[in-house]
Here is the input.
Amino acid sequence: MASGIKDALERGRVYAFYCLLSCTSLPAFGEHVVTISTSVRLGDWLAERLALPRGRERDIYVTGIQWQSARERTLQQGARQTLLDQIDYLSGPHVPPQANRDGLAALVASRKATGRVVLKRADPRWLQANPSDDPILNAGDAVAIPERPSSVTVIRSDGSLCAVPHVVQAEALYYIRTCDPDAAPDWVWVVQPDGVVQKAAVALWNRAPQDPPTPGAWIWAPGRSSGWPESLSIRLATFFATQGPSGLDDAGHDVEADVAPQQPGPAQAVPQLAQFHARGLPVTASDWGTAGLLQTPTARMNEAGEASISVSSTSPYTRFNVMLQPLDWLEFGFRYTDISSQRYGSVALSGTQSYKDKSIDFKVRLLKETATTPALAFGMRDVGGTGLFSGEYFVASKRTGDFDWSLGIGWGYLGARGNIPNPLSVFSDRFRNRPTADVNVSNAGTFSRSYFRGPMSLFGGVQYQTPWDRLILKLEYDGNNYQNEPFHQRFPTRTSLNFGAVYRVNSNIDVTAALERGNRAMFGVTLHGNLSNIGTPKVSDPSPVPLAIPSAAVPTTSSAATSTASFAAPPVAPLANADAWSGTARELEQQTGFSVQSVYRDGAQLIVVFDQVDAFYLEDKVDQIAAVLNRNAPPEVSVFRIALRSRGLPVTGYAVVRDAWVTNHTRALPPIDRQQALYTSPPASVPADDSRRSDVYEGSPQRFYVSVGPAYQQTLGGPNGFVLYQISANAYAEARLRRDTWLAGDFNLGIVDNYDKFTYTAPSNLPRVRTHLREYLTTSRFTMPLLQLTHVGAIGRDQFYSVYGGYLESMFAGVGAEWLYRPWGSSLALGVDVNRVRQRDFRQDFSLRDYSVTTGNVTLYWDTGWNGVRVELSVGQYLAKDRGATLDISRVFRNGVTIGAYATKTNVSSKQFGEGSFDKGIYVTIPFDALFTRSTGGVAAIRWSPLTRDGGAKLARQFALYNITDKSNPRNLWFAPPSAAQTGSE
Here is the structure.
């Protein structure tokens, strides 16, 4: 009896708590909605009212607390009506039955627009510590505080509801199958009680890791053949994200729904789903580095940005592979294959080094996998190489849960078993036979005439993800019988089946072991990761200036003022003299690392001009600038204009609307009230009316700049050694005569190298403009790769020019000029450069050789705006006096990493060009801002070309105008470190 009295008293204390929220009666369970009458911060309001008696905190479901904005309700009513209209007016051959449409429409119509605005978190202490995410409640707003629910509600295709008791860690499919054991959706939308909407893949062919629904979640589960389009599913999930936790109607009472039993009887497998966790399809590397099984490829692709370096060994081959995934449907890379049974060349030239074959691969996905059709891909191996391992293929892949099946047809090396006649032979007899690969390296690099020729073979297999997540098993049928290997070798085989296992050491390292040909062991290691995820916290940057609110914007309510005081320094008096603004300029330079050129007033605008903008991620820098100016600028200044210059050239500007910026950084707002505070604009110009201009600061340029550090260079795959390298000390210096004129020098001192082995000079049929590489690398230990005087200028807003002269690169000296037309905000630009140069002495000092040439290009630059793809096409005369064109295509990720490839074709024949046929290469660039703990400009560039030849060689100009003016790209604010990029939109 005593315990009963104690429980009654506890219930009375909880009831008294609710009376503090509102003087209305409280339902026995559900949620309570309080209408706000006085402006106050949500964090403060919740902190004062969520002080429950110890042990009763679990009665309040903090995750489901809702901020309901009165101003937002009107917008949500319109969205609700749009959803109803879409349900009513669906048309086409595959639309839901009318009964289902009526049922879903009735469900939506029964729910009202709440005005809910999704919060990042509803915890009061977190809100108080993060004021930019803490809203100020206005009169008419409401706060809904639910009790903790105990179920998850499934919305069926016909609009009926099914409530299932919540099971910890159970995923969406468990609740769906508990309600309907025969349900087979491909995709479901989980609406968590905090308002977050998640799309989850739940079928055998696409299942992927997902967050389990929490108590009070809604699950919209349209069947595979339900006829509901994805656009409607997104609208429906978005609408229910405004409804709060499931299980309650608009009045806060239990909603009418089927209640599924905890242990459903009809389907014995359903209870086990509560312990089941969906796993994604593991995509692993084949022996060749591409996504695949062992010797055979599959149609699978990694996520865009993935890169891998792998090595695999199966006697007598050892393969070193580098693969890149610039787009989710394109994979390409390069490879060196060591053939241990063959010498590279004579003992005098190569010693005992074994033969190294260079090759390029690519694979393109043609079709995505669906519930009923496989993924389909086309690929080619050893493109433009010697052709020793060349092959073409089509391959399909289909997943069934933990099994991933593949089947393909291949030509060349992949189809050497020849168990299928070539169907192309009906068009020409030449397709019946495939020419033997040319092992003469002088012919390497040509586009082979053997593509799709010769017999074909089937290949395929299966990959199995074991219950142990780290272990993957592979079984394949090999389309190669190893009887036509390079250098006329034949290998005995015991079976056409290969079996292997992959052990995933961690998320970046895979180890593979296999038995291939029935008699050869294979071992491989793959290092992989996604380049688009590279990022480093800026822990070495100065701490941001505390945000101060101008006096006109200080909140009037005591609660809001208290919240502001918890995170902001008190408002300070605006600066009134030049000395004070000089201090502000120094603080701006300390915060950003940029050089402040000038600060001046133009009416209600304050303009700050920066030069030498040395950072890649600009949005955070703009916020740091705005914070300093907001604290120090007079209250009558309403707009901050930030003008960016590069080498003295005006490139772009940003306008910060002061009040909107302060509001965005001091409170969360409903969508209807959100204002854009930051605008990209053309570079700020001097006011036409000089009487409005008031200069408050004029800076002086940094005259000298010196950087000292290590340097590394290497050559790969040559006959004198697979890796020839040099480690050196490097010094770079600039004397800035004016902001637009500077003298730059680069000096290198070799410390450690193995260039004593470098004796081979490649043959050439053209003027030796690049094939004297050995002589330039080995003649002198101290070199001066660069000593150049440069002047740049602008003609109007959109045209730029530069003139330069000196020792322009390690092999050429001379003079040149460039003109660039780059309209501000345009995706297109056009540049022209003309250079008269002379070859430098091998010592890279001040001496010159006899050869001279006029070289230059007309270049079209195009930022396509599609998936970050950029295209450069240049036409002109190259260093060897050959004429042609260079095409460069790259993909830039949001963190600034670039993956690209280029090719140059000129008017010299393949025979005259020599090995390689034409110049080509692959590159990756990574902003230093993504690598270092302090914000900085510049990029790390990794470039690979299969060989160095004289044809198609460009002058390596150091200060291209397109790079200098790159900050004029209107997408610069889009670039962000991974943490920001993942939460932002593309």
In short: The radius of gyration is 34 Å.
